[in-house]
Amino acid sequence: MKVLGIETSCDETGIAVYQGGRGLVAQAVYSQTDLHSAYGGVVPELASRDHVRKILPLIRQVLDEARLSSASIDGVAYTAGPGLIGALLVGAAVGRSLAWAWGVPALGVHHMEGHLLAPRLETPAPDFPFVALLVSGGHTQLVEVIGVGRYRMLGESVDDAAGEAFDKTAKLLDLRYPGGPNLARLAERGDPRRFRFPRPMTDRPGLDFSFSGLKTFTLHKLRDELPRAVDPDRTRADIARAFEEAVVDTLVIKCRRALRETGHRRLVLAGGVSANRRLRERMERVMTDEGSEVFYPRPALCTDNGAMVAYVGWLRLMAGQQEPLAIRPRARWSMLDLPPLP
Ligand code: ATP
Ligand code: MG
Ligand code: FE
């Protein structure tokens, strides 16, 4: 079965084809970064319009590159939520219409389930069960994963998501949108010993996170240090490094705790922040010492993409799930409401 996947939940138009037995056949992502960077963040209405502009040419491009005709597609999966409602509507309307025109089943996919299962597109793929750390622009969650659709929430952020903290802190550092990767780049040049930031909520039991305090901490550090800095660029890099160290350390501490508490020996990292090099390295080192394995996808499958949507669509369509002609995009949608696969 060949499934066309469509991702439009935020500011990336992602298109891919996944085929059972073969894997990822083709994929393309168009990022709207340049469009939104002038505003310092995603402007929802502009995002919707740009998806409208890009979606059909990108679908054509992916099918052409894979030398596939539309007649060879057996199902269509589109992101139905969570995300920006206007952006979701574009992917859902186009995806559902194509499926109807082609006479194949369609399915609305949960964006975070896409992130969660994307590491299974890689070799070696993590077997179930595992603990997943979902770290993206809108979510920071620790999830126990028994199988597809069999999830238990172990902990989540009580305020900002890790990616959101990266982005907001990057703004304080005068870095361009998208802040996360730019902050990580600046931190490369920073000295990890000069400043030490707190590791929020690690001194008490539990698996929840809080990242908004780190952003405020950065603001105060910048106000204290920059006016009297001999080399302000150096100071900015050192602060970026201290921030990144604090986020990475906090995530590592909670992941280790989650593995110990559940007894699982596999940890999966997913979502945009899992592209962070230092996070991957530190996590791998610490968890290997603990006798556990760490899995994460290539960076292009960490951030938003169509491949994860095609893959989840394939899994669920194969299991017989599909949707009627009506589309039902949801800005908010809990992953715990998804039906388990047998
Ligand atoms: P969600 O998936 O929760 O709906 P989203 O789709 O906007 O949110 P993703 O596309 O998964 O999020 O990830 C984008 C986030 O990842 C941004 O916050 C970005 O700053 C962050 N990010 C990407 N690369 C890095 C990196 N190397 N270091 C730190 N953060 C990064
Ligand atoms: Mg994005
Ligand atoms: Fe995402």
Task: Fill in the keyword field for this structure.
342 residues, alpha/beta, Nucleotidyltransferase, domain 5, 2 domains, 5-stranded mixed beta sheet, 11 helices, 43% helix, 19% strand, globular, binds adenosine-5'-triphosphate, binds magnesium ion, binds fe (iii) ion
Structure description:
With 342 residues, this protein is α/β, with parallel strands linked by helices. The chain has two domains: 2-116 and 301-337, Nucleotidyltransferase, domain 5; 129-296, Nucleotidyltransferase, domain 5 (2-Layer Sandwich). Helices cover 43% and strands 19% of the residues. The chain is built from eleven helices and ten strands. The strands form two sheets. The protein has a five-stranded mixed sheet with strand order 3-2-1-4-5, sandwiched between helices. The protein has a five-stranded mixed sheet with strand order 8-7-6-9-10, sandwiched between helices. A hairpin with a 3-residue loop joins strand 2 and strand 3 (23-31). The protein is globular and about 65 Å long. The chain starts with a strand and ends in a 24-residue tail after the last helix. Fe (iii) ion binds next to helix 4.
Secondary structure: elements and pairs:
Elements: E1 2-7, E2 12-19, E3 23-31, H1 33-37, H2 44-65, E4 75-81, H3 85-102, E5 106-110, H4 111-117, E6 130-135, E7 140-147, E8 150-156, H5 162-172, H6 179-188, H7 212-225, H8 232-262, E9 266-270, H9 277-289, E10 293-295, H10 299-302, H11 307-318
Parallel strand pairs: 1-4, 4-5, 6-9, 9-10
Antiparallel strand pairs: 1-2, 2-3, 6-7, 7-8
Helix pairs in contact: 2-3, 4-11, 5-6, 5-7, 5-8, 6-8, 7-8, 8-9
Residues 10-12, 304 line the site of magnesium ion (MG).
